[in-house]
Amino acid sequence: MSQQRHGSTPGEAGGVPAFPDLPEATIARLPEYLRALHHLAETGAETVSSEGLAAAAGVNSAKLRKDLSHLGSYGTRGVGYDVSLLVAQIEYILGLDENRAVCLVGVGNLGHALAGYAGFASRGFRVVALFDTDPRKVGEQINGLTVRHIDDLERIAAEESIAIGVIATPPGTAQTVADALVAAGVTSILNFAPGVLSVPSNVDVRKVDLAIELQILSFHEHRKASLTALPGGRSAAASPDKLPDNQKAVGS
């Protein structure tokens, strides 16, 4: 879930933009395409059709072709897309060729799990620093890193060229942490704490709220249950003629 979106980086006048202005929906799907492409590469595939890649990424092929056209990649008729070339294109667009430095603030249960996740390195990220304010946690070793006090954030952010900050604190302290990250020059934040952060216009925030995701799934469970509870599995709202007389709207 994105809390902000900013304009594109302009390219050279009269030419193809140096960096494409991608729709938010396309940006959100690129990591899924990349994941599918990495899996294909691991199995030895050198090319893939739009239908094959779309199925692996869980989207329809027309949407995939439109997304990739934004990157200037159209594939070859009868052959499909070159897997390694498409991986390189998407990794460039996502900035994954720069091996970005990431810091994590808050080493509670969630922070511990995130700090120990080995998948970041293979996806183009380096977790270079861990921070907390709890004196019982400061000095702890997690996955080869020493937990530092947040007072050291600005100095270490400069030393490590930290680009992205991850907030895994209780909601009451998330804004204070965001302010500290912004003051330290961090311009991208991934927030796991419930609530909306107030940040300057040049700072991008992505919010991960597990409770919201569960509530959305609860809606789908509720909807499925309401459909299967009706004769024939049909929705009463979609079939007003099937409603009992005492449930029909007045004037129907």
What attributes characterize this protein structure?
Rossmann fold; DNA binding; transcription; two-stranded antiparallel ribbon; DNA-binding transcription factor activity; 3 domains; seven-stranded mixed sheet; alpha/beta; cytoplasm; Arc Repressor Mutant, subunit A; 9 helices; 252 residues; repressor
Q: What percent of residues are in strands?
A: 5-15%
Q: Can you say what the CATH homologous superfamily of the largest domain is?
A: NAD(P)-binding Rossmann-like Domain
CATH architecture of the largest domain: 3-Layer(aba) Sandwich
Order the strands across the largest sheet as they lie in space.
5-6-4-3-7-8-9
β-strand number? 9
Q: Can you give the mean pLDDT?
A: 85
CATH topology of the largest domain: Rossmann fold
Helix content: 25-40%
Rg, nearest Å: 23 Å
Number of helices: 9
Straight-line distance between termini: 41 Å
Report on this model:
The protein is α/β, with parallel strands linked by helices and 252 residues long. It folds into 3 domains: 24-96, Orthogonal Bundle (Arc Repressor Mutant, subunit A); 99-208, Rossmann fold, CATH 3.40.50; 211-247, no CATH class. It is 39% helix and 15% strand. It contains 9 helices and 9 strands. The chain has helices at residues 24-42, 50-57, 61-69, 83-93, 109-115, 119-122, 153-160, 171-183, 210-228, and strands at 47-48, 81-82, 100-105, 125-132, 141-142, 145-149, 164-167, 188-191, 204-207. The strands form 2 sheets. A 7-stranded mixed beta sheet has the order 5-6-4-3-7-8-9, with helices on both faces. A two-stranded antiparallel sheet has the order 1-2. The protein is globular, with a radius of gyration of 23 Å. The model is unreliable at 1-17 and 247-252 (pLDDT under 50).
